[in-house]
Amino acid sequence: MNDHILEMRSITKTFPGVKALSDVTIQVERGEVHAICGENGAGKSTLMKVLSGVYPHGDYEGQIILEGEEVTFGSIRDSEKAGVVIIHQELALSPYLSIAENIFLGNERKSGLLIDWNATNVQAAELLRRVGLRENPATKIMDIGVGKQQLVEIAKAMSKDVKLLILDEPTAALNDEDSAHLLDLIRGLRDQGVTCIIISHKLNEIRAIANHVTVIRDGQVIETLDLQSGEVSEDRIIKGMVGRELTNRYPERESHIGAEVLRIENWTVHHPQQHDRVVVDHANVVVRAGEVVGIAGLMGAGRTELAMSVFGHSYGSNISGQLYLDGNPIEAKSTGAAIRHGIAYATEDRKKYGLNLIEDIKRNISLAGLPKLAPNGWVDGNRETVVANDYRRSMRIKAPSVAVKTGTLSGGNQQKVVLSKWMFTEPEVLILDEPTRGIDVGAKFEIYGIINQLVDAGKAVIVISSELPELLGICDRIYTLAEGRITGDFPVADATPETLIRYMTLEKD
Ligand SMILES: Nc1ncnc2c1ncn2[C@@H]1O[C@H](COP(=O)(O)OP(=O)(O)OP(=O)(O)O)[C@@H](O)[C@H]1O
Ligand SMILES: [Mg+2]
User: What is this entry's stated membrane topology (predicted)?
Assistant: First the structure.
């Protein structure tokens, strides 16, 4: 008989107008890594929030059996006491506090009534050693990258005697190296007897690390597959997720490349605070009508900085160089000016720059293109709803209506709202920064289709992505960027992952 540490029986959870989970039953074996896969909005995060007491007992139907006994958590605190710890999709560390303070936040090391700083720092240092993070525990969270923040979250979980660790898309924002390190850490935890549940859209990682995968579609369990034999392919998992075979991950496109649309010439950008630090160094980039151009580079190469500085100087200081649109020099020193010139930038960080989560979907979509809806000075609300509904249909945004708050959407569906918003400005040049991060395979295909429609209509698209297969699958041409400099310019036919990586890692001589 299998030893199940967890069983969730017939879980049903509804939100106003949405049945997020319907009669979901899953079983997790003690000491395994159990993956959960499914399209955006399938209900993965909701299921884990039910398990960890974010949605307390009474807020859902069904039963949770942990180590053979029914549990009825009223809060996250309760689940943590039972050894269940969740690391959420959106990291929840306090940027202004130190690593050590974050690890013991709400769980302070005390001697008497006072915080014992000595114990805090010593124990934090030990936990950092266990997760393989070489940082001073006194360093502030805002001074370390997302990869390291993810490790701090795990250290924090380990400080709580975790038996069952839940990771909701832990590697979505990580580069390959940080992801590999994190997966190793999860393997190490499994060897120490910690059971892990991991949600991810990266199916190669799931195959590499998980013992079982449970596939959820539209709030229901489709199947649980045993991955230990190694015979279950990515395509097989995708079939469960989307309900059909997806034979081609990238839609076909015939390219018709026309005249030059945007030329970025000798573009040099300095750090916003450290004015003598060069972040983008004499970059030259051209994109033509009907062309999809990729930018490949490692973390810190300056990809986002290049894009944001071009988009109305929204990043950097002391910017020099020249932009040309259709061959004519332009000035675009504010985002408003950039938008008027037909340049749009859809950001990788939807929380910070892309969306207003307490506004409804329709206003988020219309915001950047509002002048189009307000020819007489006031916004035509009916038209706004019609436009938003068109995007909801074409982008397949999963939401009961366009009047719901954007913050209630699943992560991937929020990303689709960001894309809709920029499409609505009908840009001549659309710059997409990690457009498919956290997006499921089916929706990725749709987004690629939308990019194709744009270029078929003669627009120009620049895509920044950390996933080389994606760039190779959708671009006509790929630039490599290393330490702020453009190091290569490859027609896609001449590009292989190996060449790209070689030019992405070229060092300055
Ligand atoms: N607080 C909420 N209020 C209303 N609806 C919600 C809320 N949270 C989630 N939903 C809805 O429940 C459904 C499931 O969302 P959930 O976040 O669980 O999806 P997910 O599988 O984690 O997707 P993703 O891969 O995009 O993160 C979605 O339709 C979502 O819009
Ligand atoms: Mg989710």
Answer: Peripheral membrane protein
What atom of ligand 1 comes closest to residue 46's alpha carbon? 18
| Confidence at 158, pLDDT banded by 50, 70, 90 | confident
Question: Are residues 133 and 232 located together in one domain of the fold?
Answer: yes
Judged by average pLDDT, the poorest of 17-21, 226-230, 375-379, 499-503 is 375-379
Q: Is 45 in the pocket of ligand 1 (CB under 6 A)?
A: yes
Together in a domain, 67 and 199: yes
The answer to whether 224 and 214 have CB atoms below 8 angstroms apart is yes
- From 367, 400, 426, the end of a domain falls on 426
Tokens of 399: 């939401």
Residues 284/293, Cβ–Cβ less than 8 Å: no
Domain residues for the domain of 504 are 258-342+427-509
Q: Which two tokens stand for residue 329?
A: 């020099």
Q: Does ligand 1 lie within 6 Å of residue 439's CB atom?
A: no
Gyration radius from the chain CA atoms: 24
Distance 413 CA to ligand 1 centre (A): 9
- The Cα 226–Cα 324 span in angstroms is 55
417 touches ligand 1 (CB under 6 Å)? no
Has residue 294 got a pLDDT over 60? yes
Q: Which ligand is nearest to the CA of 167?
A: 2
Ligand 1 mutation target, pool 11, 15, 199, most atoms within 8 A of CB: 15
Q: Burial of 91 by CB count in 10 Å (0-12 exposed, 13-18 middle, 19+ buried)?
A: middle
Any atom of ligand 1 within 6 Å of the Cβ of 411:
yes
Token pair for 167: 């990771």
Q: Look at the chain and report how many structural domains it folds into.
A: 3
Residues 306, 507: Cα–Cα separation, whole Å? 18
